[in-house]
Amino acid sequence: MNNSPAPQAAERALNYFHRGYNCAQSVFTAFADTMGLPEELALRLSAGFGAGVGRMRGMCGAFSGLTMVAGYCRGNLTGDQDSKEAIFSLVRQQAAAFTEEFGTLTCRELLKLDADTVESARPGERTQAYYDSRPCERCVAFCAEQAAKLIAEQN
Fold this sequence. Notes:
single chain, 155 residues
């Protein structure tokens, strides 16, 4: 029997994703209760980070959600160099794991979009073809599992 919180975290995050929330919202809000945040606040705080921040296809939104959870777990509460270095090091470790798994942190590259492709702010309709054509579900699950490990280490 697996007592790790990671599979349950991935399931919670994917539940949000399948309900239409963006990748950042899905990862971050899966831990709202753990972080003592109302679901509505977690959804609002993470809303702009989806689809590579504002659907501009920059850094993966799922990774942004993971980064916010990392900040909750080990974010600096002072402006000193050591505490800032600690969170930056943690995020870099998570980035290395994500990049090892998916090859890039960039949404545009994950989706295999041309650099010249300009998209509107309007998200695509969530259909089975949408899910089948992109790695987003895997990214959301991976980031939720990583976030669950960070939360478990903190406790």
